[in-house]
Write a structure and sequence with these properties.
Elements lengths: L18 E2 L3 E5 L10 E5 L11 H22 L3 E5 L9 E7 L10 H10 L8 H19 L8
Antiparallel strand pairs: 1-2, 2-3, 3-5, 4-5
Helix pairs in contact: 1-3
The structure holds zinc ion.
Zinc ion (ZN) binds next to loops.
Amino acid sequence: MSAPSTECPFCTRKQTIYLESPRWWLLRHADPVPLAGWMMIAAREHRGGLDEMSETEQREAGVILAEVARAVRAETGCERTYSITFNEAVKHLHLHVIPRHASDESTTSWALADRYRATARKERAPADSAEAEATARAVAARCAGPLAALGFRAP
Ligand SMILES: [Zn+2]
């Protein structure tokens, strides 16, 4: 496990946390976010990647991802979701759950990476912040019941 960092946006809790458990936080991608419903789960411990998870975190990660994916589909109407982890810009274990809309080719596979970069470079408008916020709160509300068994609650 890497040491917590005073620079780390997760360790310093710079982002809104919608649900928390003893081991995880549910957040949304920070603005500018390409799509409303772009959620993230982050380990509470400062871990560099999947290979640094505790055994309990390993068991819980799949359950959490499935519930968040279900909620993102329900709240955004997306066809399916993508789940990825890089831990590159922020080297603290976090997994993205991203809506893939059948009607929007720019959310498909690697086109999504192009859209992400275009949003970051301000060549493409991000999702409306208020909509992203409302969607994240709705996703969290939908997950709260199913994830209560893992100790999730509103912070
Ligand atoms: Zn951290």
